Amino acid sequence: MSFIDQKLVKEVSQVKLSPDIGSGPFLSSPDMKGLVDYMKSGRCKRVIVMTGAGVSVAAGIPDFRTPGTGLYYNLQKYKLPSPEAIFTLDYFRRNPQPFFVLAKELYPGQYDGTKCHYFIRLLHEKGMLLRNYTQNIDTLELSTGIPEDLLVFAHGSYASASCIECKHPHSREWVQKEVFSDRIPKCEKCERGLVKPDIVFFGENLPDRFFDLAKTDFPKADLLIVMGTSLTVYPFAGLISKVGFNTPRVLINRDPVGAATPMMLMRGHLGFDFGGNQNTRDVPLLGDCQETVEQLVQLLGWEDDFKNLMNSSTFKKDASIPSPSSDSASAPSVSSSISKTEKSEAPKKTQ
User: Fold this and answer.
1) Whose CA is closest to 250, among 33, 2, 15?
2) Which of the following is catalytic: 155, 168, 170, 269?
3) Domains, the chain, ranges and CATH?
4) pTM of this structure
């Protein structure tokens, strides 16, 4: 690291980042063994999990980027001005149909959670889960029984809906009925506005709950687990900087993401430092998320509890959601999150 970068790190550490909790280092080594030892030590009591689209792929919901099957590939038939246009209010006002075709496939009640989701539920059962911050809008967390008060839907969800003009709220059930009847939902109050599920489009503010809880949750955390996200969209990606300086941070992901760069430091975000000589807390667990979670559960000695939890799943496909017709079966699938977009502009509201 150059002298100027060292100075920048010092400035950021003094001004931008959250104070540490307790004393460190917490991990005996920044690897799987060190992580497991720490989680079994009794010192790990407040775990925050950050999740993205990668944890939902195994449920049958494809991500955005996979060639041939991803959302952006399948949206080509609509001749959108850009793939991201389907998640912008301007385009939605002009042509809402593509969004509702996708919404019809993604509505909650059609998919069960994955092993990653049940691992988060297991952390709750062990009394260790402080909060799960998710970029996903698929609500698979709820299907696995994670309590709603422990969830933060950073980009909103399908749990509620409102008119984009007068903001009048509409129930999920009413919107779902309209969508599955192939009607574009129109506001029952003002009779002119379109009704959209309360997921965050580009340019919209993130929910107040996201900012309010992040301010108090992250300084308390004694472990941060990041799973299945590209960490490219802010302010969500910046949350990894909000835990204490020695607090362990684990990345369970197919690819290494969120690495520390001078640009991130200038923005006040201290990224992962997997290869650094001074790294005592950042643990990269790279590969398939589901397989990594299985390995972690085995090493923790939680196998029986994990199997029992998954076997006790009460998930049943929502009977109110009809099976795909021949027409809808050919429609493009939608990712569980807007987190994997390559759009560089973050939502307007920032911390």
Assistant:
1) 33
2) 155
3) 6-57+115-155+208-311 (3.40.50.1220), 62-110+156-199 (3.30.1600.10)
4) 0.80
